[in-house]
Q: What sequence folds into this?
């Protein structure tokens, strides 16, 4: 059975690029442009893993991670952000809220695939 991924990111170009990478690796890809849409989508499809951007309109990534973990404690979430401080504050908070991995944008597609595969393996 194909693995599935839900990409939650308000940047359409970035989301499309990530989608292309995972489709080339035989993933079933679902997309959402903000946290609210992402949670609604996950209620319908329960993807194997979630990639969630931190800074988005409507419902940001930190709120989204908190809600996912409250409603779906088993959800595997990787937080990602292109906005970070020297301390990596927002990604650290994402980890405290339940993200299993936190990665900085931009990243190489091979590194992203490895991160997702590692997260899926447990």
A:
């Amino acid at each position: 059975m194909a693995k599935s991924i839900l990409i939650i990111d308000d940047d359409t170009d970035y989301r499309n690029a990530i989608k292309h990478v995972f489709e080339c690796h035989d993933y079933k890809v679902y997309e959402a442009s903000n946290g609210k849409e992402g949670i609604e989508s996950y209620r319908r499809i329960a993807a194997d893993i979630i990639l969630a951007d931190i800074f988005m309109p409507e419902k940001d990534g930190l709120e989204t991670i908190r809600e996912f973990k409250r409603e779906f404690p088993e959800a595997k979430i990787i937080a990602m952000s292109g906005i970070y401080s020297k301390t990596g504050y927002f990604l650290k908070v994402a980890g405290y809220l339940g993200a299993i991995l936190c990665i900085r944008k931009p990243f190489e597609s091979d590194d992203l695939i490895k991160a997702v595969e590692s997260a899926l393996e447990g």
The chain has a mean pLDDT of 92. Strands lie at 4-8, 28-32, 49-53, 77-81, 101-104.
